[in-house]
Design brief:
By secondary structure, the chain is an alpha+beta fold. The chain has one domain (19-67). The protein has two helices and three strands. Strands 1-3-2 form a three-stranded antiparallel sheet. The longest helix has 10 residues, at 36-45. The two termini are 15 Å apart.
């Protein structure tokens, strides 16, 4: 089982994120060595917290690269 990053806690303080820091689900899956269905399950359980979910019927998850050190 791949090591999971610590759950990101949200604060009321704004966070500056540069577009170069944004990564998608496929990249997170590659970093963690997991399947996309496992990623989705971990998000639903609250074990992983995406930075945002994009609009749309299947809204892609977006993550901060800094939350996933290699």
């Amino acid at each position: 089982m791949a090591d999971m990053p610590k759950k990101t806690s949200f604060s009321s303080e704004p966070r500056i994120i540069w577009c170069e820091q944004l990564i998608g689900s496929a990249t997170v899956c590659r970093i963690l060595g997991i399947d996309r269905s496992t990623l989705t399950r971990r998000i639903r359980r609250g074990e992983l917290v995406p930075l945002a979910q994009l609009d749309g019927p299947r809204g892609a998850y977006v993550f901060d690269r800094g939350d996933f050190p290699v």
